[in-house]
Amino acid sequence: MRKFGVKGKINLGFAVLFLLLMFSGAISVFELTRMRRSLSGVLTKNVNNLVLSRQLIEVVDHITYSMQELVVGNDNGAQKQLALSDSLLLGLRVRVDAMLEEGQHSDAVQSINVLLGSLHDEVSRAFMFAPGERSRLYFGQFIPASRQLMSQVDALILQNQEELSANTRLVEQTRYRTVVPGVIAICAGLILILLFNYFINYFFVNPLIKITRAVENTVEYGSPFKLNIESNDEIGELKETISQLALQAKKAAKLEAEANAKSFNGKKA
Questions:
Q1: FRET label pair with 121: which of 36, 48, 215, 261, CA 20 to 30 Å apart?
Q2: What is the pLDDT of residue 1?
Q3: Could you tell me if 143 and 135 are in contact, meaning their C-beta atoms sit under 8 angstroms apart?
Q4: Nearest to 196 by CA among 18, 75, 40
């Protein structure tokens, strides 16, 4: 009874190679997908924070210029510009609140949130002060608050730059983790190909060569068909079939020789 045929063995070898390639490919795709998702969120956060920092610097510069105009008594357009800048300031504070809700509880973000409120209060008070008192408000309260805010904005920029550097290193590490499965798959594939080649030669090619030589010896030299091949697959069946044919041919030749001998003796008598 045939247990596992040559075709099955060959298909098994190809199946192993296919599964190996599929497994290594799945690992590479998984690593790439995980890297893309993790880096996409982090890089988006870093870029948004840097854009917010730049906008904060621009708004504070506009507010500072408008406050200076109020201090020197140039109210024409300064109050309107200050009100517009203050509304932009409040809009940026909403975005900072959203950052806190998203879980960005760094010291810089929390300090910026508090200082934005303080700066807004100082700007609101500027409208209520008389022109002579605005100078004291500007130098005594607004300037220290704006400097503290800019200091925290610089800290936020530095933090995002460090995170970008860390993400760059992460990309390098993830790249190696993505490449390694492919390299392992190639090496393992080469080894399996060599083993598969040995397997084909040992179980298929070499037995066929032995059978061919045994048949040639039987046909050309009349030697008995003897072949030591222990196999339960198609090769074993082929060997048994040829062995039976050789026995039948030997019996037929013997019978023919006996018949010829009888015929010869009959004629002689």
A1: 48
A2: 40
A3: no
A4: 18
pLDDT higher than threshold 60 for residue 269 = no
Per-residue confidence at 153, pLDDT binned at 50, 70, 90?
A: confident
- Cα separation, 161 vs 108, whole angstroms: 13
Q: What is the pLDDT of residues 191-200, one digit of tens each?
A: 877 887 787 7
CA 211 – CA 230 distance, rounded (Å): 12
Q: Residue 252, class by beta-carbon neighbours within 10 Å (0-12 exposed, 13-18 middle, 19+ buried)?
A: exposed
* 230 conformational bin, left if phi > 0, alpha if psi -120 to 50, beta if neither: beta
Question: CA dist 233 to 2, 213, 215, Å?
Answer: 5, 20, 19
Query: Is pLDDT above 50 for 251?
Result: yes
Q: Which residues, other chains included, contact 36 with Cβ-Cβ below 8 Å and sequence gap of 6+? A: none
CB atoms within 10 A of CB 4: 10
Which residue, 242, 240, 238, 229, is CA-closest to 203? 229
3-state helix, strand, coil in the chain (%, to 5): 90, 0, 10
Nearest alpha-carbon partner for 123 in 197, 63, 48: 63
Q: Are 32 and 263 in contact (CB under 8 A)?
A: no
Residue 2 has pLDDT above 70, yes or no: no
Q: What is the pLDDT of residues 64-110, one digit of tens each?
A: 888 888 777 776 667 777 788 878 888 888 888 887 777 766 777 88
